[in-house]
């Protein structure tokens, strides 16, 4: 391979954030980092405990200068606490409290834990304005439905993370909050006028840019007023015209995971990589699916696209320069003590809401209504079990529930029903309604968005299903 070929391949590899299975770095990842690979994205399956993550990131740094990223939003979407649930409430809870200093403190604490583990880029916060209650992928990941509220808390989150030298990655540009389709599965559409887009969806991103966010993440969302039927991730009108031009952003643009169906089932993984680079992206998050063969194929396709004139070499040089500036901002990593100041539980306690009155618990039966996880969240544990060790807890598939049997089991006992996003699941509503009709003294705990509520004696809204949210709810229940 000639020197020019090696240089081109290095530029191509430098745009990629790869993933891998397991808690140690494979040889191919370390080898590619030596040859200029941009970095990695870690997932729950890469995490055992903080010391192991620190060892992993140290090994990665020993091979190159990687961007080491993951999704640590607090609340439902967590990677460091994937196996137990997050100690921090998510954005919906923080938006319900609406104390920007609290949001800044929570994200500073999250950032300090990431920094202590050697992670330098957090794919958070979500700056989506969640105007669609039935949104299947954002929901509690959003600060709320009001653009100004979302904007001020997005700024606070960026400031909190970056105060401990962890780069924020504000997502999902130009907005995923008004959708009813999960872009993991298909291409959602935000069909609003450019004026509405500017006033609503773009307001938090404009504020984040003003606050100096080091990176932004694209959405695989079509916005007909800007992108036609093309996802924003692949649209130069969105990434170069709107983001770089109109909003004046000159930081790093990171793609949402390219292995999502909105990309793979429209233009393919390698094709999507070339198109998003041409549109203006700098770092391509590949997601958890692609393996080393896929990575090699993507690099080869980027190299071919330059040689064939489909992608400008200047575009790759521009991306490399932006990523180099981000690395310079990271500086030399130094050990950081994670903040163990209880701010997560404090925030969850401030967010939780009780309507009605709870009664002292008598041999409680807790029915947790099973809710399928979204792909973004994954199979993170949730529920009140850890905080009610003396209760009988049953997790029920709502479609298979035997209501008479459950009511018989609950006879002469306190009944607590725990749901998550009941407004999105008719079968969950039917089960809860049947239980509450027979037992109006029951307490219902909603661990998603409190959009739908039954006529129970007491109703607790947590605005999220993180471990901290559950503890705060149980404290109210047992007060």
UniProtKB/TrEMBL annotation:
The enzyme's E.C. designation: 3.2.1.-
A Pfam match: Glyco_hydro_3
Keywords: Glycosidase, Hydrolase
Entry-linked InterPro entries: GH, Glyco_hydro_3_AS, Glyco_hydro_3_N, Glyco_hydro_3_N_sf, NagZ_Beta-hexosaminidase
Entry's Gene Ontology molecular function annotations: hydrolase activity, acting on glycosyl bonds
PROSITE patterns: GLYCOSYL_HYDROL_F3
Family per record: Belongs to the glycosyl hydrolase 3 family.
PANTHER family, alphabetized: BETA-HEXOSAMINIDASE-RELATED, GLYCOSIDE HYDROLASE FAMILY 3 DOMAIN PROTEIN
Protein name in the entry: Glycoside hydrolase family 3 protein
Source organism of the structure: Nonomuraea helvata
Organism taxonomic ancestry: Bacteria, Bacillati, Actinomycetota, Actinomycetes, Streptosporangiales
């Amino acid at each position: 391979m000639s020197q020019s070929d090696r240089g081109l391949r290095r530029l191509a590899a430098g745009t990629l954030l790869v993933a891998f299975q397991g808690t140690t770095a494979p040889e191919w990842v370390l080898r590619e980092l030596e040859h200029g690979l941009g970095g990695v994205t870690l997932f729950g399956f890469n995490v055992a405990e903080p010391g192991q993550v620190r060892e992993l990131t140290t090994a990665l740094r020993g091979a190159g200068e990687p961007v080491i990223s993951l999704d640590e939003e607090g609340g439902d979407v967590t990677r460091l606490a994937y196996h137990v649930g997050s100690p921090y409430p998510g954005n919906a809870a923080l938006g319900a409290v609406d104390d920007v200093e609290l949001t800044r403190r929570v994200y500073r604490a999250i950032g300090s834990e990431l920094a202590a583990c050697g992670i330098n880029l957090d794919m958070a916060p979500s700056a989506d304005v969640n105007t669609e209650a039935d949104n299947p992928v954002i929901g509690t990941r959003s600060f709320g439905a009001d653009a100004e509220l979302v904007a001020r808390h997005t700024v606070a989150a960026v400031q909190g993370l970056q105060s401990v030298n962890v780069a924020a990655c504000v997502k999902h540009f130009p907005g995923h909050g008004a959708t009813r389709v999960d872009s993991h599965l298909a291409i959602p559409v935000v069909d609003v006028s450019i004026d509405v887009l500017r006033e609503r969806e773009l307001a938090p991103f404009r504020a984040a840019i003003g606050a100096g966010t080091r990176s932004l993440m694209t959405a695989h969302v079509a916005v007909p007023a800007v992108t036609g039927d093309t996802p924003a991730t692949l649209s130069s009108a969105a990434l170069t015209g709107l983001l770089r031009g109109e909003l004046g952003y000159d930081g790093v643009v990171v793609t949402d995971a390219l292995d999502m169906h909105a990309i793979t089932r429209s233009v393919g993984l390698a094709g999507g990589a070339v198109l998003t680079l041409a549109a203006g992206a700098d770092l391509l998050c590949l997601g958890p699916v692609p393996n080393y063969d896929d990575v090699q194929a993507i690099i080869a396709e980027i190299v071919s696209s330059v040689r064939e004139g489909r992608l400008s070499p200047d575009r790759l040089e521009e991306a490399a320069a932006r990523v180099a500036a981000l690395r310079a901002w990271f500086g030399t990593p130094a050990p950081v003590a994670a903040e163990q100041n209880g701010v997560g539980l404090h925030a969850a306690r401030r967010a939780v809401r009780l309507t009605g009155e709870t009664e002292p618990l008598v041999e409680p039966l807790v029915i947790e209504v099973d809710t399928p996880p979204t792909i973004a969240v994954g199979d993170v544990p949730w529920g009140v079990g850890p905080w009610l060790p003396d209760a009988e807890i049953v997790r029920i598939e709502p479609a298979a529930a035997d209501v008479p049997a459950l009511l018989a089991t609950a006879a002469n006992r306190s009944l607590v029903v725990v749901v998550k996003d009941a407004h999105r699941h008719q079968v969950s509503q039917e089960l809860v309604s049947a239980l509450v009709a027979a037992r109006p003294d029951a307490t219902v705990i909603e661990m998603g968005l409190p959009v739908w509520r039954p006529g129970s004696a007491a109703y607790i809204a947590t605005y999220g299903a993180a471990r901290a949210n559950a503890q705060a709810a149980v404290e109210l229940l047992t007060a």
